[in-house]
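Researcher: Please predict.
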Amino acid sequence: MDMIIDFPGGARVDAHFGPYTVVTDQPPAGGGKGMAPTPFAIFISSLGTCAGIYVLGFLRQRNLPTENVRIIQRVYASPSTGLIDNVEMEIQVPPEIPEKYHKALILSAELCKVKQQMEAPPQFNITTRTL
């Protein structure tokens, strides 16, 4: 998938792919206006939303309720590097979802492609080209 990354002004950096645009910004302390999430925040949110897609699919396949189901994601970073060293996800379910499904919900969330990609990071090849 090709993406076009551009710089529409200030500290904004946007990604365009297909019919979509992902808008990012920096907080005022970082030179931005804080009008959109940072790229890192979007990256982190992709973990929880990806897990959520698999949890949602599991619930729907079994005609289980999806109302009042949520995932609480906690991210812990190293103070020295700022890089993530632990991600916790807690799938909160209402009492209508039987206990027998709890382990399967965890297994479903672990199918997340973003998580799997983080566990097997790609190689990066960054170049420049004059237009």
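Model: The two ends are 21 Å apart (CA to CA).
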